[in-house]
């Protein structure tokens, strides 16, 4: 199970022929984690798994995935407006210039996750993002690890937590100076930005990214 699929109580039993799928009041089939909390449901229906191909958007996703480590994605999602305000909307050029003054400001900001190592990683990764412009940019770099095929899970148990491509991406980003980009975290990133499609077979969002067929 990826980092983006928190444990959420199921509002009604899953269909017997498609474990893990919940039919909502609107008649749409979603995974259990996206079936109860309105914020997670909106995120799933409109954003999760959709392609992100711009530098700032990619840097933000990598940053938030790092902050999510050890926490639920729902926690990060609720704090995302505060994160954006605290990190200058994740503009890598501005974050790259952060020093000790900004680190202490962030450590005092109750609206975000106050973890010094993760804050420093966000600054480290902003600088690494700028350096990658000489190699085509962060977004193209990450998308270059798109596999030739995507998982097609019918149940949660069939969703991997990492892949050869996420391991390779992790190693490549670390080589470029990135931090908090482990294989599991990178697999979750790849799910979230459409590089792979791990929507369950039967979900109304399967194939919605346009990257992979339904």
From TrEMBL:
Pfam families: Adenine_glyco (PF03352). Gene3D superfamilies: Hypothetical protein, domain 2 (1.10.340.30). PANTHER family: DNA-3-METHYLADENINE GLYCOSYLASE 1 (PTHR30037), DNA-3-METHYLADENINE GLYCOSYLASE I (PTHR30037:SF4). This is DNA-3-methyladenine glycosylase I.
